[in-house]
Amino acid sequence: MRIRPSVVLALGIGYVLGARAGRDHYDAIMRQAREVRERPEVQSVAGVVSAQAGAIAQRVRTALGGSQDSDGTTFAASLGAHSSNGVGVHSH
User: Fold this and answer.
1) Which among 12, 58, 73, 91 has most CB atoms closer than 10 A?
2) What DSSP letter does each residue of 11-67 carry, written as one string?
């Protein structure tokens, strides 16, 4: 299971605010965040954004896999062709 960046960000913000404000304030912040997250409007927008992000990611994957360099190799394939020191390795 992948951890979403928004989850990591929320946990980080919650930790920092909680550490600064004390446990009671942290609990209040997390309770408010949970209430906002559970609102139907927020869930609807999150669903739309998630679907759009998935579509954009698919287009990027298609573009990277389908574009070709001047030597005929695909851009995505050339990204994986690196030696152990990070320098690109191309055989012609």
Assistant:
1) 73
2) HHHHHHHHHHH-HHHHHHHHHHHHHHHHSHHHHHHHHHHHHHHHHHHHHHHHHHHH-
Token pair of 82, please? 């690196």
Q: Which two tokens stand for residue 61?
A: 């994957």
Average pLDDT over residues 61-71: 69
| Token representation of residue 24 | 């009671």
Say if residues 8 and 16 touch (Cβ distance below 8 Å): no
> Residue 16: pLDDT band by 50, 70, 90 thresholds?
confident
Rounded CA gap, 82 and 24, in Å?
51
Global confidence as pTM: 0.40
Residues near 67 by Cβ (< 8 Å), separated by ≥ 6? Answer: 74, 75, 76
